[in-house]
Amino acid sequence: MVFFGSADARLYAVDAETGGKRWAQEFGGRIYSTPFATEKQLYFGCGDGNVYSVDMTSGKLLWRASTGNGIDSSPAVTVETVLIGSEDFFFYALDANTGAVRWKYETGLGIASSPAVAGDLAIIGSKDGYLYALEIQTGRLRWKTQVSEVVTAPPVVGDGVVCIQAGGLVALDLVSGRVVWRAGLGGAVQSAPVLTGDVIYLVSLDGEVYALE
């Protein structure tokens, strides 16, 4: 099945081969968050400020966890922990089975960026312009680095480097958060970069596709 949310406040499940609707469930706000699917459950954020977990086969609500503002960030799930940011300035780690808050970390502004997981770290961008590396088990800050005035794109991790679209493309050392290089492109970039081997691909608003080493 294919799962997706919509601005009509519904989460949809459709047959991957036919496109036929299996089920649709309505929630309390827009759903721009991309659902994260595990073996039996879906996790996603909602514009009503809640993180939801639903049964994959039926759409039945399993739990919800409230934050202080709307959520457009998409979750990552690892070690039975749901990782997601909210426009209330906080980044949350929730128990994947119950929705209980394990820890939360406050950034300087709202979070629309979706997290990347690298080993024991969650990497997240905030609208305060910083990229944060937080320990998944404890929420302890490992490092933070200012990369732009605003960060809304998701970071991508590969081969010891974190790449983030922040005006141009910025690459940071995964261990220290130090900026390794910056690449200014011909136009603004809103897409997330794609890493394959030692090449990074991305598309800019000037209509060009770029490949960088």
Q: Any chance you could write out the topology, listing elements then pairs?
A:
Elements: E1 2-5, E2 10-14, E3 21-26, E4 36-37, E5 41-45, E6 50-55, E7 61-66, E8 76-78, E9 81-85, E10 90-95, E11 101-106, E12 116-118, E13 121-125, E14 130-135, E15 141-146, E16 156-158, E17 161-166, E18 168-173, E19 179-183, E20 194-196, E21 199-203, E22 209-212
Antiparallel strand pairs: 1-2, 2-3, 4-5, 5-6, 6-7, 8-9, 9-10, 10-11, 12-13, 13-14, 14-15, 16-17, 17-18, 18-19, 20-21, 21-22
* Subunit arrangement of the protein: single chain
Q: Look at the structure and name the CATH superfamily of the largest domain.
A: YVTN repeat-like/Quinoprotein amine dehydrogenase
Instruction: Give the count of helical stretches.
Output: 0
What Rg do the Cα atoms give?
17 Å
Task: Output the CATH topology of the largest domain.
Answer: Methylamine Dehydrogenase, Chain H
Name the structural class: mainly beta
The stretches of 5 or more residues where confidence is low (pLDDT under 50) are: none
**Termini separation (Å)?**
36 Å
Q: Based on the structure given, which CATH architecture of the largest domain is correct?
A: 7 Propeller
- In terms of DSSP E residues, the strand content is over 45%
Helix content: under 10%
* Mass-distribution shape: globular
Q: N-to-C SSE series?
A: EEEEEEEEEEEEEEEEEEEEEE
